[in-house]
Each structure stands twice: as C-alpha cells, then as structure tokens.
Specification:
By secondary structure, the protein is α/β, with parallel strands linked by helices. It has two domains: about 170 residues, Response regulator (Rossmann fold, 3-Layer(aba) Sandwich), CATH 3.40.50.2300; about 140 residues, 3-Layer(aba) Sandwich (Rossmann fold). It is built from ten helices and 13 strands. It has a seven-stranded mixed β-sheet, with helices on both faces.
Length: about 325
Amino acid sequence: MRTGLKLVSVMALMLFVCGCRTDPDSNSAGTAKPPAQGDQANWTIGMSQCNLGEPWRVQMNADIKAAADSIDEVEVVFKDAQNDTLKQRSHIEEFVNAGVDLIIISPKEAQPLTEPVAKAMATGIPVIVLDRSVLGDQFTCFIGADNKKIGKAAGEWIKAELKGKGKVIELRGLSTSTPGQDRHDGFVAGIAGSDIEVVFEADMKWLEPEARKEMDSALARFDNIDLVYAHNDPGAHGAYLAAKAAGRQKDMIFVGIDALPQEGIAYVKQGLLGVTFQYPTGGQEAIDTAMQILNGATVEKQIVLGSRSFTPDNVDQGGAAVK
C-alpha cells in the first residue's frame, strides 16, 4: 500500500509531515479518490518549480502557498530544480516514492519531463502541469495562459506602434520551452504583412543578466534599433539597462511579458517599458483545481487563463483585456 511507503519516505526526506493522507485505491488515470464520509482529509501536494531565478516563478510559488495556507487539510512540499531538467525529473520520482496525493509541476522543458509525469500518472497520482506543458496527454490538467495569443498581441502592438516598419531585437525565453516557442511564433504571426525586420535574436533563458549580455552584443552590432521585444519583463528590463549604459535607451521602445506589479507594471509606470502583457501565475487556480481533483471531481483537461496589456495610458485603470 502507498501509505507505508509514504511514511518511510517522509522519514528519509524529512520533508513531509506525519499523517498525510494517501489513498491506495487511487486509479491509474490520475484521479484521486475522496476520503470516506466523515474522514478528515489530509492531503500532501508536491510542487516542482523549474527554477526560482525568475521573479515570476517566485511569485507563482507564493501564490500557491497563499492559496494552500487557507486550506487546513493541505500541505505543499516545494522543490526548486534550479534550471536543471535532470533534477526536476528526480523531483517527480521522489514525490512518487513518497506517495504524495497530487503533483504540480512547472516544467523547464516539455520533452524530458513527459515520461516522468506519465509514470506518476500510471501510479495513480494526479498531475497538474502549470504554465509550461509536456508532450502528449498523460497528465490530469494543464493550467496556463495562451502564449501564442499573448505573443501575437505583442506583435500586433509592435506593428501598430512602429507603423509597420522598423528594426527589432527579439530576446527569446528558453528556446526548448513551450512558452518561448509560442511567444516567438505568436510574435511572428502578429507582425506578419509588415516591413518590420528582426535584425537580432538571442536566447536569454528568461534571465535578466543573460538579456543584458545579449543586448550588449546587439548594441555593438547595430546603430539603429527601434524596439526590443523580450519574452519576459526581466528580459526587457535587462535590455533597457544595457541600452541605458550605452546612452541609447531613449532611441528605442521596450516590450515585455509577465506584468507582475513589482516588475512589469512598475516598469511601465516608470516609463521604462512601452507595454507589458500579463501572464498570470495560475497559483490560485492550481490549488483550486487540485482540491477539486482530490475530492473526486472531474476537471477540464485544459484551463486557459486570460491576459491583459498594460501601457502608460491604461496602467492606472487596470490595463486592457487581450482578445
């Protein structure tokens, strides 16, 4: 039975509280069986975050914790893969061995995490995939915004702002991650039919220092840059800082994605970014969905979160919905 295995793993890992509930009758489809009537549920959720080097991911964990803290019977165990796919694969194996009741994972990369997620499902543990998807359909539920839609909205905004012509830098998120791919593909669709030229693109791995380094290279190569499109706000801010150090920040517009209050939205208010597009963390929704699953409900396979755009003209009014 999973209960005995779980208690052993708790002692070994020193991460779990004693008495966390497991269900030996969970089915292989990854749908948890609710406790018998009158029982006090005590659920353990394992959360694997791909890295905590991005403020947006720190906020995701904070949102998950805040949502879980409001539910007495839920314990969340957080793990940080530190941008290491092999480490994140190990997280899933550790959670399975510990007999957690549900796993939430925000994968670094789709393909390498597909197999361990499927194996967790095969043991009867439901898996919520958050923000970045895995391949196939061997998971319980995916929660995230539509990155292609957001990328396309950014491209359309850029096309309108530049009046269909200009030289653009694209600082991409991790190219092997689905958000990085989708934010690029959406952007390309958004600027289609214009004379906008992407003169330089680089993978900055979602990290501000990497973005600043890549922007330094672009500035050294190109005298004329009209706009920088970064796949997240730290990337846009890193590009801005590089341009400012070169005395060229006023020559170009900076566009980002995420719209955290303390980052993207603040940068718009400070006049550093021309626009930022919201990518919600999904932390609250992940816990809400987890509780439905753990109590035996059937949930949607895909839960798509909405987005908003924030510019100097609308930021104080809460932005505008991305349609």
